[in-house]
Design a protein that fits this description.
Number of helices: 10
GO molecular function, one term: oxidoreductase activity
InterPro entries: AKR, AKR2_Oxidoreductase, NAD(P)_OxRdtase_dom_sf, NADP_OxRdtase_dom
CATH topology: TIM Barrel
Pfam families: Aldo_ket_red
Protein name: Aryl-alcohol dehydrogenase-like predicted oxidoreductase
Number of domains: 1
Distance between the termini: 15 Å
Organism: Aquicella lusitana
Shape: globular
Order of helices and strands: EEEHHEHEEEHEHHEHEHEHEH
Largest sheet: 8 strands, parallel, barrel
Protein backbone atom coordinates (compact mmCIF):
# COMPACT_ATOMS: atom_id res chain seq x y z
CA UNK A 1 0.00 0.00 0.00
CA UNK A 2 1.43 3.33 -1.06
CA UNK A 3 1.87 5.96 1.66
CA UNK A 4 1.91 9.72 1.27
CA UNK A 5 3.35 12.40 3.50
CA UNK A 6 1.05 14.74 5.43
CA UNK A 7 2.09 18.22 4.32
CA UNK A 8 5.54 19.13 5.59
CA UNK A 9 5.30 16.83 8.64
CA UNK A 10 7.06 13.49 9.03
CA UNK A 11 3.71 11.64 9.13
CA UNK A 12 3.10 9.15 6.33
CA UNK A 13 -0.39 7.74 5.82
CA UNK A 14 -1.75 4.99 3.60
CA UNK A 15 -3.72 6.22 0.62
CA UNK A 16 -6.75 4.45 2.06
CA UNK A 17 -7.77 5.31 5.61
CA UNK A 18 -10.27 3.36 7.68
CA UNK A 19 -13.20 5.40 8.96
CA UNK A 20 -14.51 4.16 12.30
CA UNK A 21 -17.88 5.80 12.87
CA UNK A 22 -19.51 2.36 12.55
CA UNK A 23 -17.36 1.10 15.43
CA UNK A 24 -19.29 3.19 17.92
CA UNK A 25 -22.41 4.83 16.49
CA UNK A 26 -25.40 3.68 14.46
CA UNK A 27 -27.79 6.55 15.23
CA UNK A 28 -28.16 9.70 13.14
CA UNK A 29 -26.06 8.34 10.28
CA UNK A 30 -26.88 8.59 6.58
CA UNK A 31 -26.13 5.08 5.37
CA UNK A 32 -28.77 3.38 3.18
CA UNK A 33 -29.32 0.49 5.62
CA UNK A 34 -29.32 0.16 9.39
CA UNK A 35 -26.59 -1.87 11.07
CA UNK A 36 -25.61 -3.26 14.45
CA UNK A 37 -22.40 -2.19 16.12
CA UNK A 38 -19.65 -4.79 15.66
CA UNK A 39 -18.25 -6.85 18.51
CA UNK A 40 -14.70 -6.30 19.76
CA UNK A 41 -13.71 -9.52 18.01
CA UNK A 42 -15.13 -8.29 14.71
CA UNK A 43 -13.31 -4.96 15.00
CA UNK A 44 -10.07 -6.72 15.87
CA UNK A 45 -10.44 -8.95 12.82
CA UNK A 46 -11.03 -5.89 10.65
CA UNK A 47 -8.01 -4.06 12.11
CA UNK A 48 -5.79 -7.11 11.57
CA UNK A 49 -6.98 -7.32 7.98
CA UNK A 50 -6.31 -3.62 7.48
CA UNK A 51 -2.72 -4.06 8.70
CA UNK A 52 -2.20 -6.93 6.28
CA UNK A 53 -3.47 -4.73 3.45
CA UNK A 54 -1.07 -1.93 4.42
CA UNK A 55 -3.66 0.44 5.84
CA UNK A 56 -2.22 2.53 8.70
CA UNK A 57 -4.64 5.48 8.99
CA UNK A 58 -7.62 5.39 11.36
CA UNK A 59 -10.18 8.19 11.33
CA UNK A 60 -12.26 8.62 14.49
CA UNK A 61 -13.97 11.36 16.49
CA UNK A 62 -15.69 12.04 19.82
CA UNK A 63 -18.92 12.33 17.80
CA UNK A 64 -18.52 8.69 16.70
CA UNK A 65 -20.05 7.29 19.87
CA UNK A 66 -17.75 4.78 21.57
CA UNK A 67 -15.29 4.54 18.66
CA UNK A 68 -12.36 6.16 20.49
CA UNK A 69 -12.75 4.02 23.62
CA UNK A 70 -13.01 0.82 21.62
CA UNK A 71 -9.93 1.67 19.58
CA UNK A 72 -8.03 2.52 22.75
CA UNK A 73 -8.67 -0.95 24.11
CA UNK A 74 -7.95 -2.81 20.89
CA UNK A 75 -4.78 -0.92 19.94
CA UNK A 76 -2.94 -1.56 23.19
CA UNK A 77 0.55 -2.79 22.45
CA UNK A 78 0.44 -1.75 18.79
CA UNK A 79 -0.23 1.97 18.95
CA UNK A 80 2.80 2.80 16.80
CA UNK A 81 1.46 0.66 13.95
CA UNK A 82 -1.20 3.29 13.36
CA UNK A 83 -1.66 6.93 12.47
CA UNK A 84 -4.72 8.07 14.42
CA UNK A 85 -6.77 11.04 13.28
CA UNK A 86 -9.47 12.28 15.63
CA UNK A 87 -11.51 15.46 15.90
CA UNK A 88 -12.64 18.28 18.17
CA UNK A 89 -15.69 20.52 18.32
CA UNK A 90 -18.58 18.07 17.99
CA UNK A 91 -20.13 15.57 20.37
CA UNK A 92 -23.12 13.33 19.71
CA UNK A 93 -25.26 13.10 22.83
CA UNK A 94 -28.67 11.44 23.10
CA UNK A 95 -29.22 11.48 19.37
CA UNK A 96 -28.13 15.07 18.73
CA UNK A 97 -24.91 16.85 17.77
CA UNK A 98 -23.58 19.50 20.15
CA UNK A 99 -20.80 21.90 19.16
CA UNK A 100 -18.24 23.86 21.19
CA UNK A 101 -15.13 25.33 19.58
CA UNK A 102 -13.83 27.39 22.48
CA UNK A 103 -10.15 26.98 23.45
CA UNK A 104 -11.20 25.33 26.70
CA UNK A 105 -13.48 22.85 24.93
CA UNK A 106 -10.84 21.97 22.33
CA UNK A 107 -8.19 21.37 24.97
CA UNK A 108 -10.60 19.31 27.07
CA UNK A 109 -11.56 17.27 24.00
CA UNK A 110 -7.93 16.52 23.13
CA UNK A 111 -7.17 15.46 26.71
CA UNK A 112 -10.23 13.21 26.71
CA UNK A 113 -9.25 11.64 23.37
CA UNK A 114 -5.78 10.94 24.74
CA UNK A 115 -7.37 9.08 27.67
CA UNK A 116 -9.90 7.23 25.56
CA UNK A 117 -7.32 6.16 23.00
CA UNK A 118 -4.84 5.29 25.78
CA UNK A 119 -2.02 7.20 24.15
CA UNK A 120 0.25 10.11 25.03
CA UNK A 121 -0.02 11.78 21.61
CA UNK A 122 -2.51 12.20 18.77
CA UNK A 123 -1.11 12.09 15.27
CA UNK A 124 -3.78 14.26 13.67
CA UNK A 125 -6.61 16.39 15.08
CA UNK A 126 -9.25 17.91 12.80
CA UNK A 127 -11.87 20.49 13.68
CA UNK A 128 -15.26 18.81 13.21
CA UNK A 129 -16.94 21.77 11.54
CA UNK A 130 -20.59 22.67 12.06
CA UNK A 131 -20.61 24.39 8.66
CA UNK A 132 -19.34 27.77 9.87
CA UNK A 133 -15.78 27.09 8.74
CA UNK A 134 -14.70 30.66 8.19
CA UNK A 135 -16.08 31.92 11.50
CA UNK A 136 -14.42 29.06 13.39
CA UNK A 137 -11.06 29.95 11.86
CA UNK A 138 -11.26 33.74 11.99
CA UNK A 139 -13.30 34.34 15.14
CA UNK A 140 -12.95 31.21 17.28
CA UNK A 141 -9.24 30.94 16.32
CA UNK A 142 -9.44 27.16 16.36
CA UNK A 143 -6.09 26.72 14.63
CA UNK A 144 -4.29 28.88 17.19
CA UNK A 145 -5.61 26.55 19.90
CA UNK A 146 -4.55 23.46 17.97
CA UNK A 147 -1.15 24.93 17.19
CA UNK A 148 -0.53 25.49 20.91
CA UNK A 149 -1.37 21.81 21.51
CA UNK A 150 1.01 20.87 18.70
CA UNK A 151 3.78 22.94 20.26
CA UNK A 152 3.07 21.18 23.57
CA UNK A 153 3.66 17.80 21.90
CA UNK A 154 0.11 16.52 22.32
CA UNK A 155 -0.69 16.48 18.60
CA UNK A 156 1.51 16.15 15.53
CA UNK A 157 -0.65 17.76 12.83
CA UNK A 158 -3.99 19.51 12.58
CA UNK A 159 -6.62 20.80 10.20
CA UNK A 160 -10.36 20.84 9.62
CA UNK A 161 -13.05 18.58 8.23
CA UNK A 162 -14.57 21.42 6.23
CA UNK A 163 -18.00 22.06 4.76
CA UNK A 164 -17.34 25.14 2.62
CA UNK A 165 -14.91 26.08 -0.12
CA UNK A 166 -13.87 29.25 1.72
CA UNK A 167 -13.17 27.21 4.83
CA UNK A 168 -11.17 24.68 2.88
CA UNK A 169 -8.99 27.37 1.32
CA UNK A 170 -8.38 29.02 4.70
CA UNK A 171 -7.55 25.65 6.23
CA UNK A 172 -4.94 24.98 3.56
CA UNK A 173 -3.48 28.42 4.23
CA UNK A 174 -3.25 27.98 8.00
CA UNK A 175 -3.12 24.26 8.83
CA UNK A 176 -1.69 20.93 7.66
CA UNK A 177 -4.78 19.13 6.35
CA UNK A 178 -8.23 19.80 4.92
CA UNK A 179 -10.72 16.95 4.85
CA UNK A 180 -13.12 17.62 1.98
CA UNK A 181 -16.00 15.87 0.23
CA UNK A 182 -15.25 14.71 -3.30
CA UNK A 183 -16.70 12.08 -5.62
CA UNK A 184 -17.95 11.88 -9.22
CA UNK A 185 -21.28 13.40 -8.18
CA UNK A 186 -19.74 16.27 -6.17
CA UNK A 187 -16.68 18.15 -7.39
CA UNK A 188 -17.20 21.64 -5.94
CA UNK A 189 -14.17 21.41 -3.66
CA UNK A 190 -11.68 20.60 -6.40
CA UNK A 191 -10.34 24.14 -6.04
CA UNK A 192 -9.35 23.37 -2.43
CA UNK A 193 -7.53 20.25 -3.56
CA UNK A 194 -5.61 22.19 -6.20
CA UNK A 195 -4.64 24.81 -3.62
CA UNK A 196 -3.38 22.08 -1.28
CA UNK A 197 -1.17 20.73 -4.05
CA UNK A 198 0.19 24.22 -4.66
CA UNK A 199 0.90 24.81 -0.95
CA UNK A 200 2.29 21.32 -0.23
CA UNK A 201 -0.54 20.62 2.22
CA UNK A 202 -2.66 17.49 2.55
CA UNK A 203 -6.15 16.51 1.50
CA UNK A 204 -8.17 13.74 3.10
CA UNK A 205 -11.27 12.75 1.12
CA UNK A 206 -14.59 12.05 2.86
CA UNK A 207 -17.82 10.82 1.25
CA UNK A 208 -15.82 9.25 -1.57
CA UNK A 209 -18.33 6.41 -1.84
CA UNK A 210 -21.31 8.70 -1.19
CA UNK A 211 -22.05 7.19 2.26
CA UNK A 212 -23.00 3.86 0.71
CA UNK A 213 -25.14 5.32 -2.09
CA UNK A 214 -22.60 4.65 -4.84
CA UNK A 215 -24.92 2.18 -6.53
CA UNK A 216 -26.67 5.18 -8.06
CA UNK A 217 -23.76 5.46 -10.49
CA UNK A 218 -24.25 3.86 -13.90
CA UNK A 219 -21.03 1.84 -13.98
CA UNK A 220 -19.96 -1.79 -14.08
CA UNK A 221 -17.50 -1.17 -11.24
CA UNK A 222 -18.51 2.06 -9.50
CA UNK A 223 -15.98 1.71 -6.66
CA UNK A 224 -13.00 1.31 -8.97
CA UNK A 225 -14.24 4.04 -11.30
CA UNK A 226 -14.74 6.36 -8.33
CA UNK A 227 -11.28 5.68 -6.94
CA UNK A 228 -9.73 6.25 -10.36
CA UNK A 229 -11.64 9.55 -10.60
CA UNK A 230 -10.46 10.68 -7.15
CA UNK A 231 -6.82 9.68 -7.48
CA UNK A 232 -6.58 11.47 -10.81
CA UNK A 233 -6.48 14.60 -8.64
CA UNK A 234 -2.84 15.32 -7.71
CA UNK A 235 -3.63 16.85 -4.31
CA UNK A 236 -5.18 13.75 -2.72
CA UNK A 237 -3.30 12.28 0.24
CA UNK A 238 -5.76 9.66 1.50
CA UNK A 239 -9.35 8.55 0.98
CA UNK A 240 -11.27 7.69 4.16
CA UNK A 241 -13.59 4.72 3.75
CA UNK A 242 -15.84 3.69 6.61
CA UNK A 243 -16.64 -0.01 6.87
CA UNK A 244 -17.03 -2.85 9.36
CA UNK A 245 -16.87 -5.48 6.62
CA UNK A 246 -13.41 -6.96 5.88
CA UNK A 247 -14.53 -7.95 2.37
CA UNK A 248 -15.58 -4.36 1.64
CA UNK A 249 -12.23 -3.11 2.87
CA UNK A 250 -10.40 -5.60 0.66
CA UNK A 251 -12.50 -4.55 -2.34
CA UNK A 252 -11.86 -0.87 -1.67
CA UNK A 253 -8.12 -1.43 -1.39
CA UNK A 254 -8.09 -3.50 -4.58
CA UNK A 255 -10.02 -0.75 -6.35
CA UNK A 256 -7.51 1.88 -5.26
CA UNK A 257 -4.55 -0.24 -6.32
CA UNK A 258 -6.16 -0.81 -9.71
CA UNK A 259 -7.03 2.87 -10.02
CA UNK A 260 -3.51 4.15 -9.42
CA UNK A 261 -1.83 1.61 -11.70
CA UNK A 262 -4.08 1.99 -14.76
Amino acid sequence: MQKRRVGSTDIEVSIIGLGTIKFGRNQGVKYPASFSLPTDEEIERLLNGAVELGVNLLDTAPAYGTSEERLGLLLQGRRRDWIISTKVGEEFIEGESHFDFSPQAIQKSVERSLRRLRTDYLDIVLVHSNGEDKRLIEEENVFATLNALKQAGKIRAYGMSTKTIAGGLLTIEMADIAMVAFNPEYVDERIVMAYAQQKNKSIFIKKALMSGHLQKMQSADPVQDTMRFIFAEPGVTSVIVGTINPDHLQKNVNSVLAAITT
